[in-house]
Amino acid sequence: MLTRLLGMFSKHLAMDLGTANTLMYTRASGIVLNEPSVVAVDVIKNKVLAVGREAREYMGRTPQRIKAVRPMRDGVIADFDVTKNMIEFFIRKVLQGLRIVKPSIVICVPTGITQVEKRAVVEAAHLAGVREVLLIEEPMAAAIGANLPIHEPLGNLVVDIGGGTTEVAVITMSAIACAESMRVAGDAMNHAIQRYLQDTFQIVVGENMAERVKMLIGSAAPLPQPLIAEVAGKDAVYGSPKVVRVSDSHIREALRETTNAILSAIFKTLEKTPPELAADIAHNGALLAGGGALLKGLDQLIARETRLKVIVDDDPLTTVLRGTGRTLEDKEFYSRVYIN
User: Fold this and answer.
1) What are the domain boundaries of the chain?
2) What architecture (CATH level 2) is domain 2-38+74-140+320-337?
3) What is the pLDDT of residues 161-219, one digit of tens each?
4) Host H or E run for residue 20
């Protein structure tokens, strides 16, 4: 009775604690937050100056005493204290006003997460003021968010490409039958673009610029119409400001190693898939979710190489969070998908 009464005054939250972005969901309002996973810290005073979108603008533009930190790396916590501060800031932002009791939260994590990394996520959430923490694996959350029949004895192939990790999983009967978790995803694409531009055009660009180039003209397969973008940075030889014109074919070449690694993870998962589930996948195809799904032509490349039908979710950036949030509606019905 007391638990039910407290539940009336508490909020249940879902969080996609991503390497690039953090998203939050409440039962009452749906998606209520979508901010970069970045924290700006005054290293002398050990004080947080900005979090999220504001802190993102600090990246590459700060004096020595201020650091713009991305506390999540490869889908897991890299800086525990900063992550705790970030989670606390986002929870406070979502739960504005009086909180009678602490909220409960469901957080999605990569399939390759270790027990130590799981404990770090749970502890960071508890220290940020959360009462109960449940964890769900990202491909499972993506499958729920895309309305796949996860409870049925059918094979569903999910490819979730986030900022820090690519998760490939075959899901059946509310569990993951086989999976590959690879710490190569959106961030690796940005770094590949930075390396390529420096090697080919002798220009040094920041991570934000590399990401903008990826979004503007990046592709995994040839485009119907060629695209060109002007890229501004610093001359690698003389150190002066420099602007170069770059085509989609250049960026496609820069991303080739990363896209091949994603294909390799898919093939490794399919190799481990039992024949009956493989037959289901041949009929149903593969779901593509996560921010990486927005890379132009990636679905075509995967379809051509695997000979599978590839379905890109309607809103791939929020697929995982929508699925995580949906488990809040009926925790008992989805009890088997939680991993802690």
Assistant:
1) 2-38+74-140+320-337, 153-184+255-313, 186-254
2) 2-Layer Sandwich (3.30)
3) 999 999 999 999 999 999 999 999 999 999 999 999 999 999 999 999 999 999 999 99
4) none
Count of other CB atoms within 10 angstroms of residue 308: 18
Per-residue burial over 109-121, b = 16 or more CB atoms within 10 Å of its CB, e = otherwise: bbbbbeeebbebb
- The correct answer on CATH 3.90.640.10 for the domain covering 186-254 is yes
Of 325, 290, 332, nearest to 106 by C-alpha is: 325
The pair of three-digit structure tokens given for residue 138, joined into one six-digit string: 């990202």
DSSP 225: S
What value, to the nearest 5°, has the Cα angle with vertex 326 and ends 134 and 182? 60
For residues 36 and 208, what is the distance between their CA atoms, to the nearest angstrom? 12
- Bridge-based pairing state of the strands 310-312 and 286-289: parallel
Under a CB-based contact definition with an 8 Å cutoff, are residues 96 and 88 in contact?
no
28 neighbors 13 (Cβ within 8 angstroms): no
CATH topology of domain 153-184+255-313: Nucleotidyltransferase; domain 5 (3.30.420)
Residue 10 — pLDDT band, cuts 50, 70, 90?
Answer: low
Q: Are 49 and 42 in contact (CB under 8 A)?
A: yes
Token pair in block for residue 159? 């490819």
How many angstroms separate the CA atoms of 93 and 60, rounded?
A: 26
Whole-model pTM above 0.85?
A: yes
**Cα torsion angle, 58, 60, 66, 69, sign:** positive
Condensed to tens digits (0 to 9), the pLDDT of residues 20-31 reads 999 999 988 999
> Burial level of 143, CB count in 10 A (0-12/13-18/19+)?
buried
Residue 8, both tokens: 């009336």
Q: Which residue has the tokens 């503007």?
A: 216
Q: Reduce the secondary structure of 267-295 to three states and give it as a string.
A: HHHHHHCCHHHHHHHHHHCEEEECHHHHC
Q: Do 153-184+255-313 and 2-38+74-140+320-337 have the same topology in CATH?
A: yes
Sheet (strand 66-69) strand order: 47-51, 39-42, 66-69
